[in-house]
Amino acid sequence: MPHAHHAASEPFLLIAALIFLTLVYVRGWVRIRRLDFDTIGAWRGASFLLGMFFIWLAIASPIAALDHELLTAHMVKHLLLMTVASPLIWLGAPVRPLLQGLPQQFVELISHCFRPAPVRRVGRAILHPAVCWLAAAITLVGWHVPAVFMFGLRSETWHTIEQASFLTAGLLFWWPVLQPWPTVSNRSGWSIILYLFLATLPCDILSGFLVFCDRVVYPVYFSSPSPLGFSALEDQQFAGALMWTCVTIIYLIPATLLTVRLLSPNRLRQYRATSQVLQRRLDQ
What we know:
mainly alpha
């Protein structure tokens, strides 16, 4: 009974946290729009709200209850947290609205905590693209190791930690790509395209293994009746194919947009002008 009570209380606390953050964001967004209407557009507010909705969908909706019965549902949760909700939240430019939405005392406390130089150095190190890439890859592969996967399913506490780690890793991964305020980056767009390409490799390896493996990797799904009538092996293959397809398409979108921007006539003219200046300096 204590375990059941603990399990029932976790979604309530998570939903309460989501509602609180949403209300703080909306309050801050409205205050910013009153001061400067064009600072944060309506589409950014909608993006943040949609990201919060997808987090709810992954952790507290009926889909969340199916991950003990279907590996596909488990995979959908991971994709929603890491690949869908995370970029939507950053597209909402959340830092300023959240700071504006909090009471001034909390903002001053947060500012005080992040003011020391060592804290800022640690923050810059954590947000380095290599660290963000590794965090996403280790989280993805680590939680799909069979022993770790089964451990997460058996313990509600560790299951919550697993979900939190996927969301955290997703937010870290998308930070260098979307570079929300207050990011100041001098990295080229081509390096971000390479970053996205390399990020598909762990997903390809894991999803390919799940699709082409001729045995069920996670035995817990043998004993779970499938609501959709799949066999455990078919469920595993569909989960792998889903991850393969979704990750490829979602990562391709920013990579394509970046490529188009980098190859636009204005950018090419700017590149040629910079090259000519450098060449003249070398000739001197």
